[in-house]
Amino acid sequence: MKNAIGREIPERIGSRDVRLYEGAFAVQNDGCKAARPQKFTPQQEDKLLPSIEAALEATDLTDGMTISFHHCFRNGDLVINQVLDACARKGLKDLRLFPTALFPIHAGVTNYIEAGMVTRIEGSMNGPVGAFVSQGGQLKEPAVLRSHGARWRAIEAGDVEIDVAFIAAPQADAYGNATGIRGKTPCGPISFSAVDAQYARHTVIMTNDLAPYPVYPMDIQQGWADYVVQVEEIGDPENIASGTLQLTKSPTRLLIAQLTTDAVVNSGYFVDGFSFQGGAGGISLAATKYLGDEMEKAGIVGSFGMGGGTKMLVDLLHRGLIRAILDGQAFDLDAIRSLREDAAHVMIDPGFYANYDSRGCATYKLDAAFLGATEVDLGFNVNVNTHSDGVLLHGIGGHQDVAAGAAMTMITIPTLRGRIPVIVDSVTTVTTPGEVIDVIVTERGIAVNPRREDLKGRFIAAGLPVRSLEDIKAEVDELVQPVARPVFGDEIIAAIEWRDGTVLDVVRKVEGFE
Amino acid sequence: MTARVTIGSDAKGDCRISIEAASELKVDIQAKAAQLVAGGIQVVAESALKRFGNPPVCVTVEDFGALDYVLHARLETALSQFTGSSAEPIGGNDLRTEAQADFPRRSRLYAPGNNPRLLAGIEVHGADCVLLDLEDSVPIPEKAAARSLVKHLLVSIPFPQEVWVRVNPLDAGGDEDIREVLQGRPHGVCLPKAESSRDIEQLSKRLDDVEAEFGMERGFTKVMAILETAKGILHAEQIAASDARLVMLAFGAEDFTRDLGALRSHASLLFARSQLVAAAKAAGIQASDTVYANLADAEGLLKECELARELGFDGKGAINPRQLVAIHRAFSPSEEEIAYARRVVAAAEEAAVAGSGAIALDGRMVDRPVLERAQRVIKYGRQLGLGGDAA
User: Fold this and answer.
1) Which residues of chain B does A484 touch, with a Cβ-Cβ cutoff of 8 Å?
2) Which residue of chain B is at minimal alpha-carbon distance from A485?
3) pTM of the complete model
4) Which residue among A134, A237, A401, B52 is least packed, with the fewest CB closer than 10 Å?
5) Per-domain residue ranges for chain A?
6) Beta carbons of B145 and B8 less than 8 angstroms apart
7) Mutate which: A262, A388, A419, vs B, most B CBs within 10 A
8) Pairing relationship of beta strands A202-207 and A164-169 according to DSSP bridges
9) Cβ–Cβ contact B120 with A under 8 A
């Protein structure tokens, strides 16, 4: 079956029936949400357990169950590995792993896949686990990739039932209140897990900093928490920012950031109350900085900037250039400090951010957003999940949520990565459909989606270098011999869900190259 | 033949080529994402080998994201070192058209000639002139590799602006530089450490010879002289008037202060700058100021641009694309200047229609130099596409 963007999708993927993608806002889910378990607390209760092993016993974790985690320590996370090691010691099998995201530090998961302990994964796979799964034949069912908002929705809809949620908490009290912004090793908000904690059969808080009642702010509330386990280590906050938070010196990337800023300034959205979200990549960080300077020059005060919180964003708040930061995760230690100290730096959760089945998303209030891509195509479709070689290497993050929500979504990309062109005829995997992408900014010019003639007119009037994607692509293709394309087999490695629970695309196993 | 030759590096955007003798021709390719890029690299390697008559060698290509022209250049350098022979000249006369002597050159953006990472995309930043450097930024052992890289870059990239090459002094590699890079038909060459009219005449003679060898129009290649010694500054007048190819004098403050034993300040450079501008303008050519080396100091750059413009400079050197915005702002006529110039010209036209010899604007007489300057501003604005009157 072909979905609305022409991608070939089977009727069933693994054991699930597929709903086909129909359009960015075409589906209106009108059923009821799944029920949360009812719980009871005797007046005097001690939720403390002595060890992870004790938690596995207390939660009756058995073969075939689903365990969930957040990724707020990113590549510094030490909880997932500890829990999986304990599961292995207990001899568990056939577990479904449901993290928000896995990072290179979780490379050991591949051993547990080979051993049959982990047989299904639903969540982002950044790095080695994705590469391993891409070989095919490793998991019992294809992996499922969802955006931040879509994961929240899937839990609420009952698409994924969690047996035990393990929540790394930089500070928690013995009654289960937990926060990510205090403690010995703060990692930023852990509100990613708020929905897991409410819907899981059992919720286990794991902390390396057990503090007196009440711990606040309550990213995770006492009423959701069944057990609290104190452990030596939960994560290394120095690794939160690994590989991302570098201010670029590359003239090409700085030029893209400058063009992005120029485009925002001339978009018509750049007025008092302006709002935006940038990511943590080098181009985004530089664009955030330049944009702040332009706001200062023009005397414009923005309504909010949205995180991943970064030092750049916090600087804008401190300079009085934005009224608030809405922040669901921290990308550096400056952002974490600001979350503690600045009342206008507001912690949000992915439901507030981008839950499709709800009556409001923060992303819908964005005027402008700048996002990255591994590939874009002539239909403005964007791939962030796979590389041109077809290997699954990145999660969706908030890409779909922001692109669908922002009035103007800009993809900021260099035209080449080494010898590999970034603009292609058709992306290897569609992460975000072209209908929600407005502008593609490259060092060789700015391409505007034909759906946005209004923006195109404004950019041209401002003297910006507007060109067609075809034109830019032709120029770049002159610089390198054509690259080989992967040949895909039938086996499906992963499904890419759209925000509403439909299937946008699938990642197939690579059989060879031509 | 040498036993083994290795050219290039493992820097981003570069490649490393090793060549050894073998019983038959063999190409070994190592690259990240090799299954995607190896085929393309093979095609480039075969075409480079063919230019050397497919010698019996084993070529190893380690790719670190090199574009085709980088691969071509590295292969050419390695093969020519290994075989001791050189390939037929490349390029063609349709690469680019002759530069206009009076084209506005607000900025000349330097790029080190043997650094593929910094050369990549150098044409996209909007500089008025790109200046590919074979001199100071290239260590002596890399001169041949840089020459080849700049040549292949010139042949491959359709620059949207003027593209120049700073060659080495003629007796220190400049002769070879010119024969290589003219194959890529740059708009001009830039001679460092020019000290006398003889330097320019010698360069021009060499250009005559190489243009003739490649069947280029005589005089196609323009010349920019960099004055960066005490002698050069004192001889500015004779240098500026030395040759029809010369379109610009540029100032090099770093070498000049060293030569003088002076500290770099506005005061210590004022004589040299003023002398250079006067010499250039007396000869009817352009003057460009020295580069501003402190990348982090945007304020300082802006200030130096304004001072240079006050002195009569037409432009300034840039060592990083991030400096172009400030430079272009300082050396472009402002909207007000263009508007005023238009009014002056309109008043002159009215006077001509009325048959009046005297031109009046806002109750004041406009004399000849003011009108000429106004005409220059309008032409300049049009060449730059400013003032809503794009060329």
Assistant:
1) 35-39
2) B36
3) 0.93
4) B52
5) 44-122+160-239, 251-487
6) yes
7) A419
8) parallel
9) yes
